[in-house]
Amino acid sequence: MAEGASAAQGRKVLTVGVIADNEPYSSVDGGTPSGFSIDVLEEVAAHAGLRFSYRAGSWPEIYPAFLRGEIDVIDEISFREERAALMRFTEPYHYRQTVVMHDVNRPLPALGAVEDLRPYRVGVVRDIYYKSELSARGIAVVEYDGLPSLVRALAFGWVDAIVGPEVTLSYHARRGGFGHLRVAGSVPMGGLEVEDFRLAVLPANASLLEALSAGLAAIPPQRMAEMLERWQEFGGQAISAPQAYRLSEQQTAYIRRLGPVRVGLMRDYAPFSFVDGGKVQGLAVDVLERVADLSGMQVVTVADRWTVLLDLFQRGEIDVIANISDHPARREFTRYTRPYHVIPNVVFSRDPTLLYEQPEDLRGLRIALGSEVFYEGAVRRQFGDSVVGFSSQQAMFGALAEGSVDVVLAALPNGMHWVRELGLTDVRVAGEFSMPGVEGEDLRFGVRPALEPLARIMDDALAAISPTEQRTIENRWLGASAVRGEVMQRRLSFSAAEEAYLAQRGGRLRACVSPAWMPIEGLDRHGRHAGIGADFLALFEARSGIAFEIVRTATWTESLEAAQARRCDILPMAMETLDRLAYLNFSRPYFSVPMVLLGRVEAPFVDGLDELDGRPVGVLRGHAAGELLRARYPGLRIVEVDDELEGLRRVQRGELHGYVGSLMSVSHLLQEHGLADIKVLARVPGDVLLSVATRNDEPALASIAQKLVDAVGDDERRQIEARWRAVRLEQRVDYALLWQLGGGALLGLGLLFVWNRKLGALNRRLEDANAALERVALTDSLTGVGNRKFFDRHFGATMRWCQRHELVFMVAMIDVDHFKAINDNHGHQIGDDCLVALGACLQAHLRRESDHVARFGGEEFVVFCALAAGEDAQAWLEALRVKVEALRVASPAGELRFTVSIGFADGVPGPAARAEDYLARADQALYEAKRNGRNRCVRASA
User: Fold this and answer.
1) CATH number of residue 884's parent domain
2) Is 859 labeled as catalytic in the residue annotation?
3) Would you say residue 564 lies in a domain?
4) What local confidence, expressed as pLDDT, does residue 236 receive?
5) Are residues 7 and 78 both part of a single domain?
6) What is the maximum span of the chain, computed from C-alpha positions, in angstroms?
7) Which end of the chain is less congested by CB atoms within 10 angstroms, N or C?
8) Which of 456, 478, 500 is the last residue of a domain?
9) Do 158 and 221 have their domain in common?
10) Half-sphere exposure (Cβ direction) of 859: Cα atoms closer than 13 Å
């Protein structure tokens, strides 16, 4: 560019015409234009020494004004032959690609041509220039008034795909919180799929064109890509991380004084917070962990239903509550952070004709919503008794499936999660829910007023999370299902003999199941396989390509008889027993089911089943538990029942003293049928270990079954188990029907009051029972300390906590010295008494919430905890050893004393540290303690 031309243009303020409503390229907010194209123009001005002012308007306003000479430069214009005589163009600075977008939870197949869209409903903007091209190819086109409406139509499932500009569609998907919408690809449309963005001037402004072209050429390609990413992926936020976040001295001192902060997280609000495999996880959890990392605050999570958490928060029993929306009624007891995510609330319905546009569209319908959700009051004021509140998200969508309610109001991602989890194929989104004062749901952290400085600290930490970090978290939780992706990727390969066998069977195998053992497995009212076993079978099918045909039976005994008669080839969830080996082969166990003894609520707890000698105890007919109990407790009077509900009813009636069943299935029945007068009396030693069983006259089936089992990962097992956890009993009252009772209204209200009180009592007793079941599942039945499942749940998490907060992680292996001699000389009962005494001593010595102890197996225990700098692990464990040495256990030969050897490893774990390495070092130190004479405490070498 000539120096004189540059100087002349630099002295003049040039008017640039930009489109006012073309997000994210250009838009006007508060009178100031912004967007990708505006960023490009500012870069051009800086490189070329130009000064710009912007005139924003619609294209029909801007284009004629440019041709009249009222505007110096026009932006976002494409080259056309008919325009070439009227203006001069720069080279393109951007190509806007027209693409197909889909929902990754309802993915399209690979697209090679426009015709591949024919089987689908395809959304476009009304009167878009390529609509006729799509229609001419036989595609069913649905028109929408603008790009935001188009994106929502795809998110709500009204269309299967949408066609539009890539950057703009991605921008609106991100802005709407629709992380599950992604670009599926582009398809050729005769050149209509690409639009070039240029700057143009009138022919008389040749020197200005030269300056603009030079300014564009001076923008580095990397800078251009960064600007595009900023608007396409981050909505205009700066991509670079904010300035380093540092606490002030006062804030640092405050955090140190504060100690652990109890944070409430909903247990059923996927994908934002939910419990899976005993661990709370989700988008809000990841954000919380990042806030904790930045601020140094210590977090103790409390997972429960929203109504329980909100009550605990208001009473000051938890300090922070996640996933809370700002509402005037809550400001008295809440100090809010900024939002960490905003999501739309929508109307879910099974009615294909319902279209929600305004609140009146819900008049006369039974409306379900989450109890204590921020808009509950507004909805109840408008719709009165037709509104039903639910404390469980799963139960709420279950009510919609059953027809107990007509619509559900819920956040879109959470609602879609439950629609998929429960297989509600006929549930659709009727529209985005809004009414005066109720817009999208802003997810924030709420802090109780007494901890107001903490609210500021957390807010500053949220602001310090970079857009890239935020996007990474959102992509993790709002994108496609990870399990679904793994299923598609990992395909089993079979040997030639296995392939030949499957080909001979037409790729189909007959499966027999336990028809009434939910949620482990069962047949639903339509005869379809359901439960954990069904999920595993679906996973086997996806990995192998084998089609499994369910052979319907009425009882588990009938299923076993069908297997003996060779009417079925495979049983997906069966336990190996001596009797069954006569006609079945078994894979390695892949799923374990804890067993419990249940009895009437007034019955005393028992230490072991041998206390019930001679009393009738029920078991499921044909179940492996019966065979195990007969072998271990010959004094029990075993009574077989046809299904577990019958067994529990007979316990209620006093016909059975107890019933032995699986923890998961009896928990499901207790809640589903409101059996609040039954409780857990004891954990039954020995879990039921479930395998895939196959007929033993077809040897190829055994190796096929083992490959199916080996293809399932631990994370998938935990995810499937979590999906089928039982839900709590819900208080559902049809108030509309109540008011129709006319003269019986007062009586009805009285009955309603009594019934609600009864339900409240049932729920409280059920919650107590659930808590007891959870404790039983994680507790060693002999010693009362944690069991191996408890260890698996907490061990790695404790190390990661130490890793994040640079605390000392300590692991100690503790073993009773000469325990075999104790058993041999004094009997197993005295040996058990020693272990019980040791367990009580360990629990008394470990006083802090962060101290954990578990029975590792036999006479071996493991202690693990976080220690602050300066705490002496050696002295602490030595004090424990001395306490054990002082214990006395009664025996027929007099008081018995015993000792323990302790090996421990400690240190601040680095970024690459592994918890199992600490365990191995502690185990080696225990070996050293034994070798050096026992009754001593040895620290592992670093």
Assistant:
1) 3.30.70.270
2) yes
3) no
4) 66
5) yes
6) 115
7) C
8) 478
9) no
10) 22
The H-or-E segment that residue 163 falls in is strand 161-165
- pLDDT tens digit sequence for 924-942: 899 889 888 999 999 998 7
Supply angle C-alpha 475, 478, 482, rounded to 5. Answer: 80
* Cα(284)–Cα(301) distance, integer angstroms: 12
Burial class (CB in 10 A: 0-12, 13-18, 19+), 333: middle
pLDDT band at 480 (very low <50, low <70, confident <90, very high): very low
Q: At residue 818, what is the residue type?
A: H
Among 752, 778, 804, give the residue marking a domain's end.
778
* Angle subtended at Cα 792 by Cα 796 and Cα 855, rounded to the nearest 5 degrees: 115
178 and 346 Cβ atoms separated by less than 8 Å: no
CA pair distance 512, 507, nearest whole angstrom: 17
- State the pLDDT at residue 523: 85
Does any domain span residue 174? yes
Hey, which of 130-134, 145-149, 347-351 has the most confident mean pLDDT?
A: 347-351
DSSP at 815: E
Claim to verify: residue 928 and residue 795 sit in the same structural domain: yes
Which pLDDT score is estimated for 772?
A: 58
Q: What is the token pair recorded at 120?
A: 């689908």
Residue 835 CA to chain centroid, in angstroms?
39
Closest CA to 444 of 311, 326, 344, 304: 326
Please report, as a single letter, which amino acid is at residue 511. Answer: A
Residue 354 resides in a domain: yes
* CB neighbour class for 300 (10 Å; exposed up to 12, middle 13-18, buried from 19): middle
State whether 810 and 929 are in the same domain.
yes
**How do strand 320-324 and strand 261-266 relate by DSSP bridges?**
parallel
Total number of domains constituting the chain = 6
Locate 67 and state its tokens. Answer: 């041709």
List Cα–Cα distances, 245 to 159, 461, 802, in angstroms: 44, 7, 21
Residue 745 has pLDDT above 90, yes or no: no
589: buried, middle or exposed (CB in 10 Å: 19+, 13-18, 0-12)?
middle
Q: Is 335 left (phi over 0), alpha (psi -120 to 50) or beta?
A: beta
The mean pLDDT of 333-361, rounded to a whole number, is 90
Whole-model pTM: value is 0.45
Please check the confidence at residue 715 and state whether its pLDDT lies above 80. Answer: no
Q: How far apart are CA 444 and CA 466, in angstroms?
A: 17
CATH number, position 183: 3.40.190.10
Residues 145 and 269 in one domain: no
Pairing of the two strands 900-907 and 937-939: parallel
Residues 30 and 154 placed together within one structural domain of the fold: no
Q: Which domain holds residue 316?
A: 262-341+444-478
Query: 429 and 453: one domain?
Result: no
Cis peptide before 203 (omega within 30 of 0): no
**Mean pLDDT lowest among 173-182, 837-846, 853-862, 904-913:** 173-182
Structure tokens at 265: 């997280």
Q: Are residues 137 and 226 in the same domain?
A: no
* pLDDT band of 513, cuts 50, 70, 90: very high
Task: Place 237 in a pLDDT band, splitting at 50, 70 and 90.
Answer: low
| Cβ within 8 Å of residue 395, ≥6 positions away | 727, 728, 730
CA torsion angle 705 711 715 717 (round to 10): -10
> Which stretches does DSSP call E strand in 166-285?
181-185, 194-201, 261-266, 268-269, 273-276, 279-281
**Catalytically annotated residue among 166, 859, 871, 895:** 859
